[in-house]
Design a protein that fits this description.
The chain is α+β, with helices and mostly antiparallel strands and about 1250 residues long. The protein is about 30% helix and about 25% strand. Among the domains are: about 5-80 and about 145-280, Rossmann fold (3-Layer(aba) Sandwich); about 505-560, no CATH class; about 560-580 and about 640-670 and about 705-755 and about 775-785, Immunoglobulin-like; about 790-850 and about 865-930, Immunoglobulin-like (Sandwich), CATH 2.60.40; about 930-1010 and about 1020-1055 and about 1065-1075 and about 1090-1100, Gamma-adaptin ear (GAE) domain (Immunoglobulin-like), CATH 2.60.40; about 1105-1150 and about 1200-1270, Immunoglobulin-like (Sandwich).
Length: about 1250
């Protein structure tokens, strides 16, 4: 810790608690010294501080000590009086204002960093003018009547040698009427006489004579001569001017201009001699005299008892006046003189002696003053810290109890107390003292609060938040007193605390007010920079945001110019949303197409992009071979085609904001050759943040090298908006997208640069590559203009029903004069879209063109379809705004949201060595709603080969619409279909309502006759493959399911509904044709569908056996039974499997009552053929043709029969083949016989059984009733 004498407080006490010399001089003396720009006192003042005077002193004791440091204070007699309160207040305000004006130039500098503040020494943390302010504040209490250290110790009388009567002037100067009349100053003070000789215009002879008269009149030791102004020209320049720090209002070159070096030395010697030989000895003698008197009257037990007895009879007063003649005043003078002579023990003993007296007399101001000096004496003598603080606290509290009259003294006491604590490193306690002396005066409070803030930054650990908070409080007080410069300075220092914190509200408060105050002092550009910090204030209330924004724009308008701001936070740009969309060999028909993942497009284009010589490679590998190594990873775009940038803007405020003139900031370095330019760096310089318009400049003479789009939009409170910006280069070169700019209120230009931002490019390369820097991702190699194919699909609905079949037209156009050829197209969903085979439109309107008899409308043309790739005819070539319209068939296969992707490949000739082909990418979304759902159940006929019963179940899954069913068709030439019930009975209401279900039945027949027959080459009449289900339009033709597009869509459905390897060879495919009912007003889809096709594939026949058979023979026989009745039968067996089948037929002679009905085998399911019954037989059957539940009554007494043919026969049946086995029975009596007493044991070949769940089995005979009648 620094010694108390060398501390800030020690130096202050040395200057302020020091002997006062009263100066009395004639006008001619002042005139002499004014030649130097100084008064007499100002000329002597720099030399009144002695750092090593080395004078021996002896006060109360006989022991000498040497006085090292000493200071004199010189005052004119007219200034020795208590300062006027208002004048003192104005002087302090002037000090603060002057300091603010000096700091005005520093207002534009950046605020100091907190690390720099903490690293500075303690003396440099607070502003330098603080010490000067503290001194001036202390001097406002000079010459108080309760203190003696401001009373003049000596009087210096100064007369010029040019005065007419010098001796008389000396006598007249010390007229008692001119002395301060405060009742406290001793008129018999030390007097010293000085004669001033001006070397420029006075004579030496007269001066010598006057000096002799003075010495004879006043004494030899009390008179002295000072010769000055030795420079005749008066132009002396002093390198280290001693008066510069004392009088800053005059140029330092003019101060002391007539004083030579010898003159200055003479002045120094004069003052030092005056102090060491006159002042100090006089004070020393005065202390000894006072001490002797006080010791005789107050010291000792007898005197103390006498003093107490005398005080008991004295009238008490609230603050008894203590005159200079009183004993207490003499003791106070003794203490103050001892303090100024650095005899702190004698000073403390004197202060203690009268402290109790003042307290008993309730002379509180005198008491507080003594306590104050005791605390200072304890400190400067480095004695008890506790006693020093106790005395200062006691003095401060006593001053404050006096009210307004004691506040100034309390302020001085607080300043000394705080300096004492700071010297002892108790900065936190010092801050609290500064806070206590703030008072009600706002300007004074501002300085004290700032004092406190610097104490907090000096505490350990550092209290940064208190530091910042007190700076903000101080700044507010400065502003209230119109000290705007100081308010800005304190707020700037507070920024260093809060800018790195999350205290957003106080940060906004600081920045906003700094901006306002900078505008007040006319620094609008700095004001705008600070106001920009508060624009991102979404957490503030709406009213606060409106205030911020209104004041911000007001300040901007006052500047009268547009301000370009880098990093403007209104609106906020979401850089994670930055997406660059550009076209190289990949072009896009719409924005939706560009937003699709690149992997989807690559999977489509793998089959249509040609391979290079080195195996299969894509365009990117070709590009890397043609471009120089430096630009192998560069993005490539085409001149004349836009590069699009999607960027999200967000309004952080709760109020609407209008954003105008939003555009990209770009650079394009033009070059004549594609490959030459990549060998050179762009000629554009590094980004200049001062002006974004320099980047969007003309780089070639005569016209701009690129075109920029401008967007205007309004963001509501908290709204986000994705904005698309474009740049279109018009010539080859290197294009750089540097950033984005926009305007607010027509006066603020916001700029945001992209250098340090990751970018999502919508042309992902699809292969492993080096990581691009953000600058490379926004850098493009612009090649010369290429043909670009444009495509669209006419009348594509956005919403439709499942099964809806539409006729669309794909229109392709090339506006370039360069031709394109070898067009190929691939579609992501062949199940939904099928290209037509002709170029022109249909001659018959849709859907009539799909009906039978209109096949001539579909003209075949040479096209190629391989691997779902559709190749346009070779003669198709587009150029010069020529277009082609190609038909497309759309069918909504399944419900849901479907994304359709089209990619069209085309080639260009002699255009670019880098790019030989391009692709057009098209993307559309469909919403497919549920319509009709169908299911089919097929069961074999037990009595007829190759005939099956089909049950079709239909459910209308639409929410509100009704449908009509038109036609059911079997696919292929194998199956014929017919109705089992009249058309009118299938759906009497003609329409299927929403949610309604319908079941109807049909008979299908397998038209193959042998396994070697190719059923695909068979041709059945349409009446056998199609069934009409609607009778309202009797002349309406059926739809053709054999030709495209229904046939093409059905092929797609077959591949989607199940792999062919897992499908049974006996599976049946159905197509149901329906339409929206005419009476239904569709609200679900905007375009009413005209035809819907519902495809059901791979419907298997429900049967557990690979065999089907029938027993054929007569149904009724008449026989007279005179001879044996033998009846020949034939068993026809068909192998429905794809493998060889071994079948054993075993007949069983039943000796039991065979006339009793035999229940058919459990393996026989479905229905059977029932012959016409006679009148005697009453048979019941349901729609499904179930077996008889009860035999006729005439069968109960039928005699038995026997199988008279072979009892067991084994045959091999080839796949899908039929064989006939002859059988014979012998009947012995008339009756009705069930000839089902046989069974078939079958077994499949090994290669078939391996893929089948069942390899063998047994089938019971099918009931066959034979009626034998007795002939007459």
């Amino acid at each position: 810790m620094v010694e108390p004498v060398n501390s800030s407080l020690g130096k202050m006490l040395l200057e302020e608690v020091s002997p006062v010399v009263m100066v009395l001089c004639t006008p001619l003396v002042e005139e002499t010294f004014l030649k130097n720009g100084l008064s007499f006192v100002e000329t002597l003042k720099p030399f009144c501080n002695f750092s090593n005077i080395d004078v021996p002193v002896r006060t109360s004791s006989d022991q000498l000590y040497r006085l090292k440091k000493f200071t004199l204070r010189l005052f004119y007699a007219s200034d020795i009086r208590q300062p006027n309160v208002e004048v003192a207040k104005q002087r302090l305000e002037h000090v603060i204002t002057q300091a603010g004006e000096k700091d005005f130039q520093n207002l534009t500098s950046d605020p100091p960093q907190i690390t720099d503040i903490l690293s500075n020494p303690e003396s440099e943390i607070a502003p330098s003018w603080f010490q000067y302010y503290n001194k001036e504040l202390i001097r406002t209490l000079s010459f108080s009547d309760h203190e003696a250290f401001d009373h003049p110790v000596a009087c210096l009388l100064v007369v010029s040698s040019k005065d007419e009567e010098p001796i008389k002037n000396f006598i007249d100067l010390f007229n008692s009427n001119r002395l301060p009349n405060d009742g406290a100053m001793d008129p018999n003070i030390l007097k010293h006489y000085l004669l001033v000789h001006d070397n420029q215009d006075a004579t030496t002879e007269r001066t010598s004579k006057v000096l002799s008269e003075m010495r004879s009149q006043f004494g030899n030791n009390e008179c002295n001569l000072l010769c000055t102004n030795s420079s005749k020209e008066g132009n002396v320049e002093h390198q280290a001017n001693p008066w510069a720090s004392f009088k800053s209002s005059v140029s330092a070159d003019k101060l002391g201009c007539a004083l030579t070096g010898d003159d200055i030395v003479e002045i120094k010697d004069l003052i030092q001699e005056f102090a060491s030989r006159h002042i100090i000895p006089y004070m020393e003698q005065k202390v000894r005299e006072l001490n002797q008197q006080i010791s005789a009257t107050r010291k000792g037990l007898r005197n103390q008892i006498k003093n107490l007895w005398w005080r008991k009879g004295k009238d008490d007063g609230p603050d008894a006046t203590k005159g200079s003649i009183s004993t207490e005043s003499q003791i106070r003078i003794l203490g103050d003189y001892a303090f100024m002579l650095h005899d702190y023990e004698l000073a403390l003993s004197s202060y203690r002696l009268i402290s109790t007296d003042y307290k008993l007399d309730k002379a509180w101001k005198h008491y507080a003053g003594v306590q104050e000096m005791m605390g200072l004496a304890y400190f400067i003598s480095d004695q008890s810290k506790k006693e020093a603080e106790y005395c200062m606290e006691n003095a401060f509290s006593t001053y404050m109890k006096l009210g307004k009259s004691g506040f100034q003294n309390a302020t001085r006491c607080g300043l000394w107390w705080a300096e004492m604590l700071k010297a002892r490193k108790q900065h936190k306690e010092a801050a609290s003292v500064y806070f206590r002396i703030c008072g009600e005066e706002p300007l004074h409070a501002a300085v004290m609060l700032e004092h406190a803030s610097y104490c907090y930054v000096l505490t350990r650990p550092v209290m940064l938040h208190k530091y910042g908070f007190h700076l903000v409080l101080s700044g507010d007080h400065y502003k209230n007193c119109d000290q705007v410069n100081h308010a800005i300075r304190t707020y700037k220092s507070a920024i260093t605390v809060y800018k790195s914190t999350t205290w957003s509200h106080i940060k906004d408060h600081v920045y906003f007010h700094i901006g306002q105050w900078y505008a007040i002092v006319g620094m609008h550009d700095v004001a705008v920079r600070n106001m920009l910090k508060v624009l991102d204030c979404g957490y503030q209330s709406k009213a606060t945001q409106e205030i911020f924004l209104r004041d911000f724009f007001d300040i901007v308008k006052k500047t009268g110019m547009k301000h370009e701001v880098v990093g403007l936070q209104l609106p906020i740009i979401n850089m994670s949303s930055l997406q660059v969309i550009y076209e190289d060999h990949r072009t896009y028909a719409s924005q939706a197409s560009a937003l699709v993942e690149e992997s989807i497009w690559q999977s489509l284009e793998d089959d249509i992009i040609p391979s290079l010589n080195s195996g299969k490679s894509n365009w990117l590998e070709l590009q890397s071979k043609l471009l120089p190594k430096k630009y192998k990873e560069s993005n490539v775009c085409v001149a004349g085609e836009s590069v699009k940038v999607d960027l999200e803007f967000r309004n952080p405020l709760l109020i609407s904001t209008s954003i105008t003139s939003v555009s990209l900031i770009c650079e394009l370095t033009a070059n004549s050759d594609d490959l030459q330019l990549v060998d050179k760096e762009p000629s554009s310089s590094i980004l200049d943040p001062k002006s974004s318009t320099e980047h969007n400049r003309v780089t070639t003479s005569g016209f701009s090298s690129f075109a920029l789009s401008e967007v205007d939009f309004t963001l509501g409170g908290g709204e986000k908006k994705l904005v698309r910006l474009t740049v279109t280069p018009s010539e080859e070169g290197i294009l750089k997208i540097v950033g984005v700019r926009w305007e607010l209120s027509g006066s603020i230009v916001g700029v945001h640069y992209f250098q340090s931002v990751p970018v999502k490019a919508k042309t992902a390369k699809g292969r492993k590559k080096n990581k691009l820097t953000p600058t490379d991702a926004l850098k493009f190699l612009v090649i010369k203009s290429l043909p670009r194919l444009e495509g669209s699909i006419d009348h594509l609905p956005g919403k439709l029903y499942a099964g809806d079949l539409r006729y669309l037209v794909l229109e392709l156009k090339n506006k370039s004069e360069s031709p394109i050829k070898n067009l190929k197209m691939k579609i992501s969903h062949p199940r939904f879209v099928s290209p037509g085979n002709h170029e022109e439109d249909l001659t018959t309107e849709f859907p009539d063109c799909l009906r039978k008899g209109n096949e001539q409308d579909i003209v075949q043309r040479e096209t190629i379809r391989t691997n779902s790739v559709f190749a346009f005819p070779k003669d198709v070539s587009l150029q010069g705004d020529k277009s082609i319209r190609w038909p497309l068939w759309l069918r909504a296969a399944i419900p849901g949201t479907i994304s359709l992707y089209f990619t069209i490949y085309y080639e260009m000739e002699n255009v670019s060595s880098i790019m030989k082909y391009r692709t057009l990418r098209m993307h559309y979304k469909l919403q497919v709603l549920p319509s009709l759902e169908t299911s089919y159940e097929i069961t074999p006929s037990p009595s007829r080969l190759q005939e099956y019963l089909v049950r079709m179940d239909i459910v209308n899954c639409a929410k509100s619409d009704c449908f009509q069913i038109h036609q059911l068709s079997t696919v292929g030439c194998r199956w014929g279909i017919s109705l089992l019930q009249p058309v009118d009975t299938i759906l009497p209401s003609k329409t299927l309502l929403a949610g309604q279900t319908l079941s109807c039945f049909f008979i299908i027949k397998d038209c193959r006759k042998s396994g070697t027959e190719d059923y695909k080459s068979m041709s059945l009449p349409s009446s056998q493959t199609d069934v009409k289900l609607f009778t309202q339009d009797g002349d309406e033709k059926l739809f053709d399911i054999v030709n495209s597009p229904l046939a093409s869509f059905h092929d797609s459905e077959r591949s989607c509904q199940g792999p062919s390897a897992q499908v049974s060879p006996n599976a049946v495919d159905f197509i149901l044709i329906s339409s929206l009912a005419k009476s239904s007003n569709s609200s679900a889809v905007p375009d009413v569908p005209e035809i819907l096709s519902h495809h059901s594939c791979h419907n298997s026949i429900r049967s557990s056996s690979p065999l089907s058979w029938s027993l054929e023979g007569p149904k009724t026989i008449h026989h007279d039974f005179s001879t044996l009745c033998e009846i020949n039968l034939k068993l026809i067996i068909r192998n429905t499997s794809e493998g060889l089948s071994s079948v054993i037929i075993n007949t069983i002679d039943c000796l039991l009552d065979t006339a009793s009905p035999t229940t058919s085998s459990g393996s026989q399911s479905g229905w059977r053929y029932v012959p016409a019954v006679t009148e005697e037989m009453k048979l019941t059957s349901d729609v499904m043709g179930s077996r008889l539940s009860k035999p006729p009554s005439s069968m109960e007494s039928s005699p038995p029969f026997i199988w008279s043919g072979l009892s067991s026969t084994k045959v091999q049946i080839k796949p899908l083949s039929t064989t006939e086995i002859p059988l014979q029975i012998s009947v012995f009596s008339p009756g009705i016989y069930d000839l089902s007493s046989y069974k078939l044991d079958w077994e499949l070949s090994e290669h078939v059984s391996a893929s089948s769940t069942t390899s063998s089995g047994t089938c019971q005979g099918i009931p066959y009733y034979l009626t034998v009648l007795q002939s007459e």
